């Protein structure tokens, strides 16, 4: 059977229905604009995620810098990057700082996240973490102890983290140790032991070869060249003795250190002898001042330093009490002598719940004794009982002022029970 539709003439557009060339041009132009807008739209989105990933944590100071701890961010790209809304954290998610909206880092620039802003310090075993505004981790660094200087990327901005030669807050990292970092650290100009001497200090985290460096006083004709093969360990000292350099230092004089090319590395001048020595305070990087005593080849003794005495007891560690007696959280241990050749008493405080223990030596170990407190006998007195039960603690200590101070300590250290 023939299909009648096959013989039907195809419909044709009338001249009125045909799109004009002008209309077609407008349609193509509109389509082109739409394509361009889509391309432009996609193009504007791509750098956003790319830009986020380029920002680097570049240097970290975790041990009380100037001022406080800080982390340095670096933009290695060729365009500015908006970091407003980014998050900075240490190793604890509860400690979070959000970078203010509108903050950007210029191309090749730095931004400092300061302790005063993020309001928490960085610990000796800690981390620095950076998240973008969507809370996606961008960069991080974890360390197990404080750096002697700072931790920084070496080479700057791109390398792995290492201990830097020196802290360079807001600038390119100092990664290569050089003799230019050697310091004149302490000077004896008034007949020390033996004779005059000058102490050099290596402030870098690497050993330095100081062979060929020249030492002079204020007269260029008096010069001493440090022998070949002379190494100074990281944080180490090297002493130039009068017997070696061949000349003494005067009351009006200088100490100068030059590199092998004759360029000045470090110097110090004075107009009268020090009653002790001249030394950098703080040691290694501070200004020169009169020390409190000569410390040849060692850390300088500076005014205001806390002087500690060596531990007078045995260096060995020995457990002196019974196992599982206190259950932990003990502090404030104090020994009260008996005033006689017999052994005294130990008093120990527990932080929480608040308790004060009286501990005696029973001939083999130290153990708490029962104290009468209220209607009970137990080896402690609680904080809330301390005011009313102090007179009931039997026997009272031979030094009431010590007991009273222990109770005051207990009140400060322990929460109310």
Fold blueprint:
Layout: H1 21-54, E1 56-65, E2 68-74, E3 81-82, E4 87-89, E5 96-98, E6 104-105, E7 110-114, H2 115-118, E8 126-131, E9 137-143, E10 151-154, E11 160-163, E12 182-192, E13 195-202, E14 208-209, E15 214-216, E16 223-225, E17 231-232, E18 237-241, H3 242-245, E19 253-258, E20 264-270, E21 278-281, E22 287-290, E23 330-336, E24 345-350, E25 355-361, E26 366-368, E27 371-373, E28 376-378, E29 381-382, H4 386-389, H5 400-413
Antiparallel strand pairs: 1-2, 1-10, 2-7, 3-6, 4-5, 4-8, 8-9, 10-11, 12-13, 12-21, 13-18, 14-17, 15-16, 15-19, 19-20, 21-22, 23-24, 24-25, 25-26, 25-29, 27-28
- Average of per-residue pLDDT values: 80
Indicate the CATH class of the largest domain. Answer: Mainly Beta
Q: Report strand %.
A: 25-35%
User: Spans with pLDDT under 50 lasting ≥5 residues?
Assistant: 1-19, 28-49, 385-417
How many separate helices? 5
Number of domains: 3
- Write the CATH homologous superfamily of the largest domain: Lamin Tail domain
Q: Which architecture name of the largest domain does CATH use?
A: Sandwich
**Termini gap:** 106 Å
Helix content: 10-25%
Q: From the helix content, strand content and strand pairing, which structural class follows?
A: alpha+beta
Number of strands: 29
C-alpha-based Rg, rounded: 37 Å
Outline type: flat
If strands are numbered along the chain, what order do they take across the biggest sheet?
7-2-1-10-11
Largest sheet: 5 strands, antiparallel
* CATH fold field value of the largest domain: Immunoglobulin-like
